[in-house]
Amino acid sequence: MLQLSATFDLQQDVVSSIFKKEATVGRIKEYSGIVDTRILNIERDGGVLYSWKGTTGTTRIGKYDPNTRQNKLLYTFDKQVCVSSCSLNKEETLLAVSLAQRTRTEERLRPVSKCLTLLIEIHPINNTKVLKAVDCRVRVQFIHPDTERDSVLESHLLLVAEDGYVEQLHVMLVRQEGYRVEKAVLKCVQFCHDHNCETLFELELELPSNPFTCMRFVNLGFDHHQETQHEREEMRMVVITNKTGSMCVCYSQPACADQEIKYTIVLVHRGCSKTFSVALDGTPSPCSTDLLPLFIPIGYYVVVYLSGHLLHCINTRQQELLCHSLFLSGVDAELGVLGSDSVVLSLPESSLLDLNTGRMFTVDLNPSFLMDLLHCSHSRPDAQRLAALHCLLLYMGPNAALQLKIIDWICDNVMPFDTFDQIQEFILASLYRLIYKKCLSLDEVLPYSSVFEKKKVPEGLDQVPGVTCTTELHAEPVFKGKARSLQGFWEELQWSTEKMKYFEAVPNPRYRTSQNLPDWTKLLTTLKSENKKASNYLRHIEENTKQVLSMVDSWNLDQKVVPLFQEEDSQQRALIGLMVDKLREHLNRHLPRLGKKKIDVLVVNYVAKLLELIRRMLESVWLKYKLGPLVLCLKQQGSSAEWAVFHVMCRILEATKTLCLPLPPGYHTLLSVLGVRCLPRHTFLQYVDHGVLQLTETFVSRLMTDLDNSDANEELKFSVLKRLPERMEQRICHLWDHPISSACISRDYVRGLLEKHAKTKGSMFMERDEPGFRPEFLPLTFLTKILLDVEDRALNPFEEQENVDARFVEETALKQTLILLGFQDK
């Protein structure tokens, strides 16, 4: 499930380098001369601080730079000491060290503190100052305030004692009194460059009584000299933050006697906490009380990992349903590079440290494993496949090769699953990925899964075998002091927590595209209306559409594989504009803080990305089945590959129609072309009658001009014509070179002209004598004279019918007569 990439190896990157340097000066001749090499701390810049003891009786501290992959000696103690904590300032001039002191036999009568904390000036002069000599362990850490200055005039040192005191020291050693951490209250303290510190945030936590018998400060280095009785952890707690303004407090306790483990994720930005209970597989272990999972941040997922038992990727932004968080157990929850006896610590930036081997790893989701989960359609539950699909689409990011594999999987599994529609999930999750980083509160107003479109969540998605989850509202966090006016993380976190109260109070804050269906039905009616007010509304909708399509046109469309965006599709253009209108209205109502301009840009971009996403889906399907330009020819029968593409396109149409999502202009024309090629004629007409295929003007025009007038084609054309709206039928008849279409054109022309003639008062038939006038058939002659007379009086009576006049009507009438009498073929 997880993919580990080694970034540091203590033996290869440090020990071998030390040996080479020491051997060149003749100090040591074999690796055994370098003993007890241990990692002490990982600094903010990624540098690794470590210590080692040599045969000369000294202890040395060095630094490994991951950028240059070079090692540097920082300081040498002239005797062997036990370094329990260490930190280096940004300028590499000061070294803070905590030494664990053990009482020797001859010194038992002298009082000796258990921990000695030193501040060592390593450049330019080795001055040393004792900061603390106490009977409890002290961790040291230089902190780096965010500043735009190139050089910092002072360094800030943080001292954290296991008895709960925290101190900050400024060099030149301006001391600030520490702050005690209250029981069951999480406090966040901001240390400022003006020598002050302030509590910005407090959160009450529902923790068991006396949860901490010992403390291990993961982010403040690693103490290899802890007392034996302190090595067993009764509880593990981690605080995880994200720049978008999310905060998670994760804690767990060892497995109970009944082999059940519980862990809690407090979603501060969501105002709730989730406690998961998982029954561990296998026989009860006598050491079950030592089983504590790791909490590993990966993007906005929190991975809960217990080797061989569980691996739970918890979605901290879409936490409502279990099916959007991936749960694995048994062999799926193994990380091969980590042994069963490994002592592993979770570090920031999605990293792990194996203290036994001295190796560090970056942690990432394994896309190959996730794709295998999708393909195991029979052995995996739907909830697991849905969670894997969301991991691939949301976390893995815009990866063209990966997206192609997912589309390929959709083609091979084109029918919807029992509990979810994979095409709908692909569209909504992909769109959500494009905007989720812009604002945390967009999670609550924009769709990311089609599951919420259902009236009731299917049971297969609401439950995960072996896992129970309880959700509770936690105490409201308290923001203090400067947190009210700070920007960045604290501002976003505060706004998110306040906004959650609003979302809980208002009905339906999440935008559901299917709710546009009533408005879409009204708009279809408006398209057929000639109401001036309706025309104004249509112009407004069309302006929205133009903004979207202009953005699509500006993207990479030069290599067009599929002929889309090349025609006027009035219905789809109207649906595009309607979606822009409704989504803009929804965001302005629920997130006015974003501002109208930002919302306008976001909405137009969202709808444009939707059209572009469907285009990419079609292009991938087109390339998968190796279709070429010949598929656009109506004269040939379709192949099996074209039938497969037609089937996928029908499923895309079904998925988008249910959600009331627009399609790129030209989609319906392309689908109808494939329908004519792949379906029997009567089946094609049934697809039209049931609304699956639409008779767009572009498609019908090509049908009339590309197909000859054989009996079968003539029957199809007549069947299509009678299904067209009257206005479109009149336009299409002009394109079909056929006596029947000519007769229809003539009748419409005569009817319109005579209606106009009847309304004209005082009009009289006037005799005319023109060359070439044929009086053989007096009724036709009389009608022709009337039409010629009205034509002379009318000013452009039928501009849209430039090739229709009285002569055309006369010729058509004569031809029809000859055909009826059997003197001429059609």
TrEMBL record:
It comes from the Eukaryota. GO terms for cellular component: trans-Golgi network. Residues 611-718 form the Gamma-secretase-activating protein C-terminal domain. GO terms for biological process: positive regulation of amyloid-beta formation. InterPro entries: GSAP_C_dom (IPR028010), GSAP_fam (IPR026172). This is Gamma-secretase-activating protein isoform X3. The lineage of its organism: Eukaryota, Metazoa, Chordata, Craniata, Vertebrata. The gene is LOC120031732.
